[in-house]
Amino acid sequence: KSLGRSSVRSRMSLKPPKAYNSLQKGALIWDPKPLQVKKIFEALKKGLNEYLEAHQAELDYLSGRHKDTKRNSRLAFYYDLDKQIRSVERYIRKLEFHISKVEELYEAYCIQCRLRDGATNMKQAFSLSPATKASRESLVELYRNVQECTEDMCFIEGALEVHLGEFHVKMKGLVGFARLCPGDQYEVFVRLGRQKWRLRGKIETDDSQTWDEEEKIFIPNLHEKFEIKVTELRGLATILVGVVTCDSSSFFSPKPQAIVVDITELGTIKLRLEVLW
């Protein structure tokens, strides 16, 4: 292999094991999913570039004002504007480093993926050839290479997850038209992997809604989707309204995302959420 396991890990900044969702004891994913990783990587890179473009536009605007202010304005205002410019410049440098780190991780991931595919193809070819001592030794070595590449891919997936940021999910209420009546009570359960959010709400007499919680922070990961379950509470009984899953790849955006999810098959009850990355 051109990139051994030690070389892959030595190129990355190591963090405490708890930082890697995929590397926690008992949670190591031994089945890398290159297509899913590619999907998240492309969405993440697109979102980071949009952040970068927005802050670059802000910097250009502030720099223009800075030049005008230097000629004909108060000194205090000029220094305040200068402070803003330096702050935006620092944030842009952080974004650029973030993007380069994500690209470096994904490039290393693709290399390990190609090495694993090559070793797997060779292993299959050797397994079809006549059994000799040399072929058996080659099979053992190829099997070891496949295992090491798989382990490296899992490690890189965990390292990449550290750079995914946070999702701030806000509850905006249920939409159900005639299905929602004053006095109705509902429970919404949102899960992302091991992360859970359970909240209860009530339809008031003026058709407004009150919920015991309004916001929850989720740490995104590469392999899990949002699972949303809504139940209606009637005394001691609960009636399942619907269960849906929601892909998080579209949430990597600098602008708040308004999400409307059909809870029932016919869309008679919908759940409104707002996601800020």
UniProtKB/TrEMBL annotation:
Which gene name does the record give? Ripor3
> What organism does this protein naturally occur in?
Pheucticus melanocephalus (Black-headed grosbeak)
> Which top-level group of life is the source organism from?
Eukaryota
Q: What is this protein called?
A: RIPR3 protein
Output the PANTHER family linked to this UniProt entry: PROTEIN KINASE PKN/PRK1, EFFECTOR, RIPOR FAMILY MEMBER 3
Family assignment from sequence similarity: Belongs to the RIPOR family.
Cited Pfam families: PL48 (PF15903)
What range(s) does the FAM65 N-terminal domain occupy?
Answer: 2-277
